[in-house]
Write a structure and sequence with these properties.
about 250 residues; alpha/beta; 12 strands; about 30% helix; globular; plasmid
């Protein structure tokens, strides 16, 4: 049972209050939904007294889109928004000789993971994996299967965003196309249907959603398994489609 849980979140910078300050109730609700979804991963945290639960994940893989497919050495990886014009760093990797700034999607995933946990040291290992926004479904599925096999129990934090034209301000044709794509993704996330994610057609998501490749990595990781799915939010903020969900393996559902 390699993949035991997953959290699916978007990655706008507005989730980080230290960076953008007060940005409105919509963003506050979205942040709260993301943190709740990440908590469902049940990542073990060492409190100095108790051993991690037997069903806790051994590895947490943060997956997100980028301009190229690549992994990051956890010892040197750190969150950064410098490529987005903001001097902000997060984590300890920047002090390493092999320091590597994470792309936006993984930076937000790293921030969510560490913000959602209670006080203490995370026991599970963390891996960072970027996937090319334009990667083929076959590449995404194969990568997901590989990631899910890297530990006996793997949790995955998948960072991806929906449509860029959810509101009426977008052109009508693009708006209809975006809603159709978003409906497919929402249904797959709510039903925890990994195979449906793996079957997403990249041509339908061109110029509408940037999360397609990351979602299809999850599709590969969860292939052939049954999960309980839960939506924590499916809203449009500032005209963007943001989906928040969590999956738990059927045998783990209480």
């Amino acid at each position: 049972m390699p993949l035991v849980s997953a959290a699916i979140c978007p990655h706008p910078m507005m989730l980080i209050p230290d960076v953008v300050g007060e940005v409105g109730e919509g963003w506050d609700r979205l942040r709260a939904a993301c943190l709740e979804a990440v908590r469902q991963l049940n990542v073990p945290v060492y409190d100095g007294k108790h051993a991690p639960a037997a069903d806790a994940p051994h590895l947490v893989v943060i997956v997100g889109g980028d301009d190229t497919t690549r992994s990051f050495d956890p010892s040197g990886a750190y969150g950064s928004l410098l490529s987005n014009g903001i001097y902000w760093e997060y984590g300890w990797g920047s002090d390493s000789e092999d320091a590597q700034p994470l792309p936006l999607s993984l930076t937000l995933g790293y921030w969510l993971l560490l913000t959602a946990k209670p006080a203490g040291m995370i026991v599970a290992d963390i891996a960072f994996q970027a996937i090319d926004f334009d990667a083929s479904p076959q590449e995404c599925v194969a990568l997901g299967q590989d990631l899910a096999g890297r530990a006996e129990r793997v949790a995955m934090l998948v960072m991806g965003e929906g449509s860029t034209c959810m509101t009426a301000s977008g052109r009508e044709w693009w708006g209809k196309r975006a809603r159709l794509c978003d409906t497919k993704v929402l249904r797959a996330l709510e039903q925890a249907d990994a195979d449906a994610l793996a079957r997403l057609d990249p041509t339908e998501f061109l110029q509408t959603a940037t999360g397609r490749a990351a979602w299809q990595v999850l599709g590969g990781a969860g292939s052939g398994q049954r999960f309980h799915g839960r939506l924590h939010g499916d809203t449009a903020v500032s005209g963007l489609g943001y989906f928040v969900a969590s999956w738990a393996q059927r045998s783990d559902v209480r």
